[in-house]
Design brief:
The protein is mainly α. The protein has 3 domains: 5-40, no CATH class; 55-84 and 140-165, no CATH class; 87-132. 55% of the residues lie in helices and 9% in strands. The chain has helices at residues 5-17, 58-83, 111-137, 141-164; strands at residues 21-28, 34-40. The chain has a two-stranded antiparallel ribbon with strand order 1-2. A hairpin with a 5-residue loop joins β1 (21-28) and β2. α2 (58-83) packs antiparallel against α4 (141-164). The longest helix is centred in the last third of the chain and has 27 residues, at 111-137. It is rod-shaped. The two termini are 29 Å apart.
Length: 165
């Protein structure tokens, strides 16, 4: 093992005192000496040697996450300030001169029926467009930015946690 017998014996005694290993069996050497065989005291044994200062504490990790959420909140306020006060024109807004304004005539072999169908289609399109417009304006852009940022942050933290396992 690249160490002296005294050093190995010392460390084995420390592991036995800590109840991490135990004597599992006894073997005899070629010279007839009795030797103890050690095994983990439980079924699973995790040994990790690292400097405590190199591993971030739970408090440090939480401060990092809260700092990221705070930065995201400030950025959301900036987005809200820049884009929240404007009413952007929508592609669904209708102007005069559509099919509903055309005169309905019935003496052309059913032109009035086609004109009524065009009017109903235009009214339905306007209703759908107004519903979509009010739904898009229901949430402020800063809130949407914040929610998207939280989603990205959660995905990144999940990936880091998964890779750390």
């Amino acid at each position: 093992m690249g160490t002296s017998l005294q050093n190995a014996t010392y460390h084995l005694e420390k592991l036995v005192e800590a109840d991490l290993v135990e004597v599992a069996d006894t073997w005899y050497s070629e010279q007839g000496r009795e030797m103890n065989v050690y095994a983990p005291a439980s079924e699973s044994l995790v040994v990790f040697a690292a400097d405590e200062a190199s591993k971030p504490s739970l408090k440090e990790r939480l401060m990092r996450v809260l700092g990221a959420v705070g930065f995201l909140g400030v950025a959301s306020l900036v987005v809200q300030r820049l884009f929240g006060g404007r009413d952007a024109p929508t592609e669904f807004q209708t102007t005069g001169g559509d099919a509903a304004d055309a005169p309905a005539t019935t003496d052309g072999g059913g032109i009035g029926i086609m004109n009524e169908q065009a009017t109903e289609t235009a009214n339905a399109t306007t209703t759908v467009a107004e519903g979509a417009q009010s739904g898009a304006q229901g949430l402020p852009p800063g809130l949407l930015f914040f929610a998207g940022g939280l989603l990205v942050l959660a995905v990144v933290l999940g990936y880091v946690w998964y890779r750390g396992r």
